[in-house]
């Protein structure tokens, strides 16, 4: 009994522990001394990975850092200082910069999401050398306003860098696509402005940071819209391989020794030897305009593309499409065979313009370069 009573008294005593007021006081002291230091550790590492394939996770972490900076700015406002005049002015400017940073980041997030949909990952942002003491308190114990302002300014510069990187990447890719397709004789029409732009003509006003930032964001979105139009134009051209798997090119475009007559003759396409029944795919987006037989070609499928080009697939063993069907790049349209004037199962692939055959090799090679460009 004495032992149990003693045990009960010890248990009761242990529950008193550290007094809550003392505990929270200690916690407040630790928080005040380390809030800025922790922010310094968080300030730079994630932004370097902002658009390197982990967009969503890194943006979330970046938003947490912005929220932490906002807490720090609010905390600075709540402190009392002897030199109230100059410091209050600094705090007001710092709060305004913080609000601009938040708006800027919201715009960047929209642009990052749009760029991600188009397969664009901007270059990694520079890793700044931010030491452990960057946001440490001054020797008098007060937080360093200048260091906090520098941190906000740095993050604004980083988000601006992200916007610039997106625009440069989108513009460079759009220009490369236009160059490739123009070289094939395919004109590419790109929008010059964003859709839905208008309003009354008013005299200009003095710009603030927010309006200039919105103009920058609109310019980036314009670059993304142009890139999307350029990228979509790739699918309208027959530049993709119409066959995959185990195959080889067995004959090229141009004059060759005819396999039946033994004399020189013109070959109007590329031949790809493959097993009978191998699936044939549309080389680009378009509409099936012919399904049937043609002299010398055997079974044929033709697809007419938006730019007026026609891709022809011949010597087929079977059809997987009908006239009028809308097809995309990679849509199965037929099966490899050996019908018509053929020595064995293979796909004869042609590209035609104004009813004349042109070399498909230039189209397929351009397609390979464009696929590499798009990653």
TrEMBL record:
Gene3D superfamilies for this protein: Glucose Permease (Domain IIA) (2.70.70.10)
Gene Ontology MF terms: metalloendopeptidase activity
Domain of life: Bacteria
Membrane-spanning segments: 21-43
Pfam families on file: Peptidase_M23
Keywords associated with the record: Membrane, Transmembrane, Transmembrane helix
Keyword field contains Ribonucleoprotein: no
Mitochondrion listed as a keyword: no
Domain M23ase beta-sheet core: 266-360
PANTHER family to which the protein is assigned, alphabetical: MUREIN HYDROLASE ACTIVATOR ENVC, PEPTIDASE-RELATED
Name of the molecule in the record: M23 family metallopeptidase
Lineage: Bacteria, Pseudomonadati, Pseudomonadota, Alphaproteobacteria, Hyphomicrobiales
